[in-house]
Amino acid sequence: GDGKEQNIDLRIQQANANYHFYSAPKLDTESYLLAEIIDAEKLDLPRGKAQITYDGMYIGETVIDGSSTMQNLTLILGTDQRVSVKREKLHDFSSKKTFGSDIKQVFTYKITVKNNQKKPVKMVLKDQYPTSTQKSIEVELLKETTKPTFNKTETGVITWEETFAPGETKTYQISYSVKYPKDINLNL
Fold it and tell me: In this predicted model, what pLDDT tens digit does every residue of 110-131 receive, in sequence order?
């Protein structure tokens, strides 16, 4: 060309995707928009950078591993402020009590999710409670917890999968107890 660096589109492909939001507010209260491209292997995507647009707006770049043998390809399109997530500890429902030679602590958290968009959105929300490999330390997920879609007890990860109507707000609660001997110092 004219001696300046230029970008050239070698191939432009469009693909249908299922979109949903993901948040793990214990780690990060941002909500991330994800696109899951079904039958991605049929697209024969080369390995490299790809520019992503959503709703006609440039979102950013991602890297595609064309050598992957997975049928579906999930792309993280970035954070989206239009779905807000807040996690807070409920002190009124959290406690620390002594029973003989044991201490029992109860922790309760409230998670609030609001869809600020004018269209329904699907949301995958994850939270975690501790697990124990020691017999002297007992962890129990309490009944006050909002019934999760999935509960992986071996890792303590609970998942809620919901669809939110435009402008809808939902709250979730996770409550668990940890019982341990007084002579053990736990960082909870």
Answer: 999 999 999 999 999 999 999 9
Question: What is the Cα–Cα distance from 99 to 181, expressed in whole angstroms?
Answer: 9
> Alpha-carbon dihedral of residues 64, 65, 68, 74, nearest 10 degrees?
-30
- Look up the pTM and report it: 0.81
